[in-house]
Amino acid sequence: MDLTADFFSLFGLPKTFRLNLSELDSRYRDVQAQVHPDRFANASEAERRLSMQWATRANEAYLTLKKPLERAKYLLELADHDLQAENNTAMPADFLMEQMEWREAVMEARAGGDHHELERLYQRLRGDMDGRYGEVGRLLDEAGDYPLATDRVRRLMFLEKLLYEIDDALASLEE
Amino acid sequence: MTRWRRWKNKNMALFQIAEPGESAAPHEHKLAIGIDLGTTNSLVATVRSGIAICLSDDNGRSLLPSVVHYNADGSTEVGHEAQRNQALDPRNTVVSVKRFMGRGRQDIAHVESMPYDFVEAPGMVRLRTQAGIKSPVEISAEILKTLKDRAEAALGGELVGAVITVPAYFDDAQRQATKDAARLAGLNVLRLLNEPTAAAIAYGLDNGAEGVYAVYDLGGGTFDISILKLTKGVFEVMATGGDSALGGDDFDHRIFCWAIETGKLQPLSAQDARLLMMRCREAKEFLSKNPEAPITARLSTGEMVDLKLDVATFAEITRTLVSKTLQPVKKALRDAGLRPDEIKGVVMVGGATRMPQIQKAVGDFFRQEPLTNLDPDKVVALGAATQANLLAGNKTGKDDWLLLDVIPLSLGLETMGGLTEKVIPRNSTIPTARAQEFTTFKDGQTAMAIHVVQGEREMVADCRSLARFELRGIPPMVAGAARIRVTFQVDADGLLSVTAREQTTGVESSITVKPSYGLSDDEIAGMLQDSLAHAKDDAMARALREAQVEAERMIEATEAALAEDAHLLNEAEATRIRNAIAKLQEAAAGDNRRIINIAMDDLGFETQEFAHRRMDQSIKKVLSGRKVDDIRVGEEE
Questions:
Q1: Between B404, B561, B636, which is nearest A68 by CB?
Q2: CATH number for the domain formed by residue range(s) A7-66
Q3: Which residues of A, range 111-140, sit inside 8 Å of B by Cβ?
Q4: Which residues of B, range 28-47, sit inside 8 Å of A by Cβ?
Q5: B107 touches B120 (CB < 8 A)
Q6: Is the CB of B431 less than 8 angstroms away from the CB of A22?
Q7: Which residue from A125, A126, A108, A109 is spatially nearest to A117, judged by alpha carbons?
Q8: How far is the first Cα of chain B from the last one, in angstroms, to the nearest whole number?
Q9: Which end of chain A is more exposed for a tag (fewer CB within 10 A), N or C?
Q10: Most confidently predicted of B206-210, B265-269, B348-352, B509-513
Q11: Where would I find the H helices in B221-318?
């Protein structure tokens, strides 16, 4: 085990999308309990520095594996499938169309101060995304179809952003 | 970074060392303290026979007013003695110095009603006193020194270190200033600990609490809200928020303004203003238990102030302040992804939470009675002492816990058009690191300015500027070809270091900065020199003793590691480490500081690989017995 080990190995977990999240939680805490700087407050300088690096790595690993989108992106990265998120934004027209409709609905509800409608949009989108993550899980863990998984993950990147915007709109109405 | 750390070690606390080369007994109880360096009052606590207690002065008082009075001859009074000079000599009596830590003059509220002679200085404001120009770091160090002396007298020995608490919402500059003050006071800082987290430790361990708790901490000058998840042995901060310039002082100030208006008072002299402010503070405290408080004072003009303030009026004139605390509460809850009714308990911390309108507002918001069973003045110091005891290595098997804290404010860089690019978002668990790549925008560009900021706003101008530096020596290339990787590392104290590196060609430039609001090495060295000159001590002798102490500490740590894990080394490696220890012991017995430092560097080099293997072993151990195959694939969220 060294600092370059992948995030799954760091916690002794299988490289799968469908991860047992409570197991992830408990292993993260177990590892952090060993490497955290609080364990080395009185140690030599070399050990203190190493402890900071390991604890930093454990936090990064946990953050990545905890969120489904980040976990999926990380699995694709490990399989050498580049998402090219920044320089290849072309998406199918029907998907983009659908996105525009979502965004219009959110903007309208926000402008009208319609808390109830925003809540409804949020729940609907969450349901839609749950289904899509299920598909990503099958593609990555069972079919091993990385090209198709890449396409699905790129769509989910749009949807996560949209979800964040709805959440933001809800918060701004509450204030 | 290395240079900085090395320097710091040389200036850490002095320990009693019997004879260089003699290790301390392995299970000896180490003396460690927790210090709550507050705006209004400060405290020191320790763990004795397994119980955290606050240490008192000779008169049995545990609260030390955070007041420092400077005399013309350079001597100082701290605490109650200094407080007596408040109204007589306000210009040379500094109260609430915490409000100035890591702050420029323009950042400080109500400067106009303060009696000090402020001096503008790069980064942090200074105060001109009759004993010379003092930085807030030096003034805070006086308070810390007083508490350190109190602890050493009570515990009868030298301290291995201290945990110093800071408001969770303190930014990097304020944290750095606090750490500098502790170093200046000769304390070895085991950790900077967030105040609400310290309170949660004291509360959680006492009550065996499990679940999600909110800590509402309104001190003299700062407000924090932290949302923590307490599970068996783990304190995990989910989100934190606050206002580092909002506290009980502001309530005093509202009463003060009300008194001037209601009493139709003429502009006050510095002395009269301080006198009236003290009466207003007393009235505030009186109103926590009484329906009405008198405010009476005889001014130097002969004018009499004779007013009565009732609870309802007090609540009315401070309503905006109370609601100002609820904004960060809402934001922290949202960041944690929780609703108010999902909070199991609300722990109240800080003397200002005694105000009835605060308790009512918090109770109404969370729809439950806030928890006030711990003394809100002492709970932070007690938690800090408990954590210091753990960090010093005094834990017994069952008293063990893990603390996972976060940074309160996002860290970022200035990009084109004065916009902020966030590199590390707020509420990231620390320690944490994040790298971002940038490129050149002109052909042949060989330098790049890097501006590090902290805050949530989009425009750089609205965030706090932490550091500016220039990365030079970029090989000339066409625009956009260079790849400059800027890495932010935040350590367990919440302190940032930034490294920049150009990595397309073999040439790598790298620079590490310490945020500009902290003091430079030279400034600290100068202050140490000054304080030593005053104490008629010998700076060289002190530096030598500190090097010897650090050597001793290093030998002790290495021997403990060898005793546990010598099996991880082959014979040649073990011999090299033992030789390096022997050389360091020999060096520490002599009086050449340079030779001690070289021997320490050598031992550090020889133990690097050993440290790696020990870390690897401990991770494998904790994961063993749980094979990969055993894990049942669970349901996706």
A1: B636
A2: 1.10.287.110
A3: 130, 133-134, 137
A4: 30
A5: no
A6: no
A7: A109
A8: 42
A9: C
A10: B348-352
A11: 248-262, 270-286, 311-317
Close Cβ partners of B92 (under 8 Å, ≥ 6 residues apart): B69, B70, B71, B85, B129, B130, B131
Query: How far apart, in whole angstroms, are the C-alpha atoms of residue B289 and residue B295?
Result: 16
Q: Which residues in A lie closer than 8 A to residue B237 (C-beta atoms)? A: none
- Mean pLDDT, residues B27-31 taken together: 78
Cβ contact (<8 Å) for B631 and A20? yes
Find the helix or strand (DSSP H, E) in which A24 lies: helix A21-35
* pLDDT confidence of residue B10: 32
Per-residue confidence (pLDDT) for residue A1, from 0 to 100? 65
For A124, other C-beta atoms within 10 Å of its C-beta total 13
Other Cβ atoms less than 10 A from the Cβ of B312: the count is 11
- A97 to chain B, minimum CA–CA distance in Å? 28
Amino acid at B231: T
Closest CA to B346 of B334, B331, B364, B328: B364
CB contact residues (below 8 A), chain B span 479-518, against chain A: 489, 491-492
A47 closest CB neighbour out of B234, B404, B611: B611
Chain B contact set for A75 (CB, 8 A): none
Q: Which amino acid is at A165?
A: E
**Residue B521 above 60 pLDDT?**
no
Query: Of B329, B324, B379, which Cα lies nearest the Cα of B354?
Result: B379
Interface touch A30/B616, C-beta < 8 Å: no
pLDDT in tens, chain A (175 residues): 678 889 999 999 999 999 999 999 999 999 999 999 999 988 888 889 899 999 999 999 999 999 999 999 999 999 988 777 554 567 888 888 899 999 999 999 999 989 999 999 999 999 999 999 999 999 999 999 999 999 999 999 999 999 999 988 888 887 6
* ipTM computed for the complex: 0.90
Residue B506: the pLDDT is 63
The confidence score (pLDDT) of residue B333 equals: 94
Q: Are B349 and B376 in contact (CB under 8 A)?
A: yes
Q: Which residue in the set B616, B619, B636 is minimally distant from A133, CB to CB?
A: B636
**Contact criterion met (CB < 8 Å) for B428 and A59:** yes
Q: What residues of A are in contact with residue B234 (Cβ under 8 Å)?
A: 29
Q: Residue B312 — φ and ψ, nearest 5°? A: -65, -45
The separation between CA A65 and the C-alpha centre of its own chain, rounded to angstroms, equals 7
B279–chain A nearest CA distance, Å: 37
The per-residue b/e assignment along A155-169, b for 16 or more CB within 10 angstroms, e otherwise, is bbebbbebbeebeeb
Q: For position B35, what pLDDT does the model report?
A: 98
* β-bridge mates for residue B465, sequence order: B453
Query: CB–CB of B230/B206 below 8 Å?
Result: no
Contact (CB<8Å) B636/A20: no
**Distance between CA A120 and CA A115 in Å, rounded?**
9
Longest CA–CA separation in chain A, Å: 61
Any idea where the domains of chain A sit in the sequence? 7-66, 93-174
CA dist list (Å): B276 to B219, B250, B257, B279:
21, 14, 10, 5
For residue A54, the surrounding DSSP H or E stretch is helix A45-66
d(CA B433, CA A59): 9
CATH topology of domain A93-174: Monooxygenase (1.20.1280)
Q: Is B285 a catalytic residue?
A: no
Q: Identify any residues that bridge with B307 across adjacent strands, giving them in sequence order.
A: B295
Read off φ and ψ for residue B189, nearest 5 degrees.
Answer: -85, 110
- B150-205 pLDDT per residue, tens: 999 999 988 999 999 999 999 998 999 999 999 889 899 999 999 999 999 999 88
pLDDT band at B527 (very low <50, low <70, confident <90, very high): low
Phi-psi region of A23 (alpha: psi -120 to 50; beta: other; left: phi over 0): alpha
